[in-house]
Structures are given as C-alpha cells and as structure tokens.
Amino acid sequence: MAERAHGGADENVVTLLKEQHRQIRELFEQVETAEGEGRREAFRKLVRMLAVHETAEEEVVHPTARRAFPGGDRVVDDRLREEREAKEVLSELDGMDVDDPDFMPTLRALRDDVLAHADSEERLEFSRLQEETEPRMLARMAKAVRAAEAVAPTHPHPGVESATKNLVLGPVTALVDRARDAVRKAMGDRH
Amino acid sequence: MSADLSPLIAATAQWLTRAYAPGGGALDSVLAGAQARQAVTVAAWLRYPTVLDAGLVMVAGPGGSARLDWLAGADLGETDEADHAWRTWVDEAVASWAAALLSDRRLAAAAVAAVGDSDHALGLPVEFRRLTAPDAHDGRAAPLLRHPDLVASLAGLHRAELLGRLDAGHEHAA
C-alpha cells in the first residue's frame, strides 16, 4: 500500500510534501476540466495551494536541505529560481479572467513548469534530504509544515462561550502575564 | 514551530489580513496572508517564548479581537457563530507586535534573529523570507499592511513591550 500523509507525530515531511504535489496536480486537472464559475473557484484553490505550499517549503524545508548534503545550496538555489519563474506566470494568470482566450494556454504553460519543478524537488532535493536526515527531524519538519499551513480555527476558544464574553475577556493577556511571572518566580526560587 | 500556538497564529494573521485588505487578486490575498502569518509567528514566539508560556496562553485564551475590532472601527454588529469563533483566538499584543514587524524591516530582522533558537523552532533552521525580505510581488500584495502610517495606531499599542523584549534578548545574548 502506498505511504500516505497522515498528520501523526511520526509523519515524514517528504511524504507530506509529495502528497501535496499530488494534490496540486489534481487541482490543475480540475481547473482544466471545469467551466465558468467552477473554473474560477478551482483556480482560486490552486493559487492558494501553490502559494501556501511554496511558502512552507521556503520557511521549513529549503533551509534544512541547504545544510543536509554537499551541494545542497546549489540544489535549493535552482529550485528557488524555478519557483520565481513559475510565480511570474502565476501572477500573469491571476490578472486574467478564466474566460480570457489566453487563460488556458497560459495555465498549461504554468502546469508544465510547476510539475517539472515538483519532479526536480522530489528527485534532487527531497530524496537526498530523506537519506541524510534523521527520521526524528523529518517528523519535526512535517509538524512545522503543518503549523505553517494551518487555517484559523472554526470553533471558539473553550473558555469563551459568547461574543459578549469575548469582549469582557479582553484583558486576559494580562492574566497570562501575571500567571507566567508567578510561575517563573516560583521556578526561579527553586534555583 | 510548535503546532500548539497555531490556532492563535492563524486567527491573528487572519484578523490582520482582513483589517488591512490585500491587493486585488487571489494571489495577492494569499501572499498577504503568508506575510501576516510569518510576522504573527515571529511575534507569538517572542511573546510566548517557552512551551510553558504557550501552554498558559492556550489554556487561558488569547483574549479575542474585541478591542482590536473596536480600535479598527469595524462595526461587526451581530456576527454569526463562525465569524465569532475564530475571533476568540486573536491575540491583541501579538497582532500589535506583528504590525510593528511588518512596517519596519530593521525591527523584523532583529525579531527573527531573537527567535532563532526558540523552543518553538523545534531545532530547525527556519527562515521567514516573506517577512524580512519581501519581493516585488509580496510588496504589491500587502500595501496597507506594510504601510507604517496605516498600521501606526495598532503597532503603537504594545510597541514599548516589543522593544523591551528585543532589548532584553539582546542584553541576554551579549
């Protein structure tokens, strides 16, 4: 059975990123096959996925890859150049309506660039990263990528039941500061 | 990058990008969101530097966006449950610190240097390039969020504490 991204404590960042590459490929297909408003919505999802994924890679994965193996710097610089080039095309597309006659040819050019870039990342960067990095660190990187990609909660903080209470609890940060100072003092007293 | 603070970080970044509307398209919106999220991450790591600090704020609650909404002049009226829910996770001081970092490149560099060995980084050499060295696309995507005059009142709310924290870290390292 193929290994899948699962979000557990022992998750591997390479598995997670490859799964996201697969989702990106699927989103390109959705934009190509949908029409009208459906295409517009699929394109918005694709843009979000691409930007969030690249930002997390740049923040968490590339810095470690640079240090993980000989030539890592050059491999990462090449990937960043590909990302910049793809972003130029993405920006051009973002300014067009999905019904524009140039939209689909430009989208296909972007798809080819993005998929070639993802393939280079998997072959030249992720495989070496996986070989040279302890599983414990690959798991931490997966946790960091998930944190960087987190969306705002859809449930209220458990201590807040109503909008009115939210207003009343405004100065709660001061409470946290006081609690922290008290704990620090208690811990400091033991030293 | 402790996942423990991620609801606070995601909600506070969302508040910033809604209060300071990004440029026009889908790409601008997501690039502005990425810059806000990096600024809020660095601000939250500075504000709650240890796992203990993070644990406390997540139990007590970050306070919510009520005062920020009032200061921003947002008349939310009767908000629905979904809109109310994420706003309870917004942290006023972290939003203020993040606004200060987004509008001052030197302060952003100092803050990123100060969180380099944070517990929250999990021992990884993380980089916040969109915050510290935004490219032309990033700048166009978040013109309001990075405008010192427009974020001045928010950044000013807790600026003294931010500068104090950065100074204390600097003295500690020296």
From TrEMBL, chain A:
It holds the Pfam family Hemerythrin. Signal peptide: none annotated. Residues 13-127 form the Hemerythrin-like domain. It comes from the Bacteria. This is Hemerythrin.
UniProtKB/TrEMBL annotation, chain B:
It comes from Streptomyces cinnamoneus (Streptoverticillium cinnamoneum). This is Uncharacterized protein. The lineage of its organism: Bacteria, Bacillati, Actinomycetota, Actinomycetes, Kitasatosporales. It comes from the Bacteria.
